[in-house]
Specification:
- The protein contains four helices and no strands.
- It is elongated, with a radius of gyration of 16 Å.
- Helices cover 67% and strands 0% of the residues.
- Helix 1 runs antiparallel to helix 2 and helix 2 runs antiparallel to helix 3.
């Protein structure tokens, strides 16, 4: 993933990013929903837990989704994989050259 990516991979990446973001955020919202319905925690505990998680999620989104460039696509993909935005299955949308590296 250190070489300049193919144009086809760049197009796939640009199309995939909004889908990945929405999926990731839906997963986080589902976690929040579970947390809110947890009868073991007080309202205060729920609030502060959600606030902390929201802050962490915001940092991850900024790190992974801001400032995409074709030359940094490989780095962006690695970051997205590390933070759970992108799944290994998502790599199948790319060329075998990129997905195998």
């Amino acid at each position: 993933m250190n070489k300049k990516p193919k144009e086809s991979d760049w197009k796939v990446f640009r199309k995939l990013v909004p889908e990945i973001r929405e999926r990731y955020l839906q997963e986080r919202l589902d976690e929040f929903s579970s947390l809110l319905s947890d009868g073991e925690l007080s309202a205060t505990e729920k609030f502060w837990e959600i606030e902390e998680r929201s802050s962490d999620i915001s940092k991850i989104l900024r790190r992974c989704l801001n400032g995409h460039s074709r030359s940094k696509m490989g780095l962006s993909i690695r970051l997205m994989l590390r933070h759970g935005l992108m799944k290994k299955d998502d790599l199948s949308a790319f060329s075998s050259e990129l997905s195998e590296s």
